[in-house]
Structure formats: C-alpha cells, structure tokens
C-alpha cells in the first residue's frame, strides 16, 4: 500500500520545540520510520479514531430493536408533525 508521505505533493508544516522534535525522532526510530512518516501515520490513525467516535453510531441489542422497529413501523403523524411539515413545505416551496 502506498503511503501519503511517499506519494503526496501536499505539505504540512509545523513548529515545535527541540524537546518535542527529539521525542518524535526517538519514537520514529523505534518504528524504523522517518519523522515525517511517523508523524503522518500517527496523525492519520488518530484522525480515523476521532472520525469513528463522531460519525459512527453503535447501538446495543435492545436499542437496535427499538430503532429498527421505529424505522419499519413508524407511528402515524400527529397534529404537531403535520403542522411542522406544512410550515416546512411553505418555507421551502
């Protein structure tokens, strides 16, 4: 698999103190990577984790059953929902 650090044209610059740079160099050497490869791989891993935490919904078994039932057997619209839909239609249409 090609890595972005090997094939990309975009550049990301950052400033850091000597201690932070030394720490990154040390960690990168343990992984047998350049600092750029190490930072990119670590940042991408964290980015995927943050996206998963914020974009993927996981439901327990009982919650899934309630959710699925609401999708497959939705309740009939009540007066408030009909009124809201009428306002929406008027505003958008």
UniProtKB/TrEMBL annotation:
UniProt keywords, alphabetically: Plasmid, Toxin-antitoxin system
Which Gene3D superfamilies does UniProt cross-reference here? Single helix bin
InterPro entries (alphabetical): Ribbon_hlx_hlx, TacA_1-like
What GO biological process, any one, is recorded here? regulation of DNA-templated transcription
Short name of any one Pfam family annotated for the protein: TacA1
> What is the similarity comment for this entry?
Belongs to the TacA antitoxin family.
Tell me the PANTHER family matching this sequence. ABC-TYPE TRANSPORT SYSTEM, COPG FAMILY HELIX-TURN-HELIX PROTEIN-RELATED-RELATED
Per its record, how is this protein called by name? DUF1778 domain-containing protein
Give the organism, scientific name. Tistrella mobilis (strain KA081020-065)
């Amino acid at each position: 698999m090609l890595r972005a650090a090997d094939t990309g044209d975009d550049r990301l610059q950052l400033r850091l103190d000597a201690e932070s740079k030394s720490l990154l160099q040390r960690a990168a050497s343990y992984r047998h990577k350049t600092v750029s490869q190490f930072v990119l791989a670590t940042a991408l891993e964290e980015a995927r984790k943050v996206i998963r935490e914020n974009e993927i919904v996981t439901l327990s078994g009982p919650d899934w059953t309630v959710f699925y039932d609401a999708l497959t057997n939705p309740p009939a619209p009540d007066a408030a929902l009909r009124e809201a839909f009428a306002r929406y239609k008027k505003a958008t249409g």
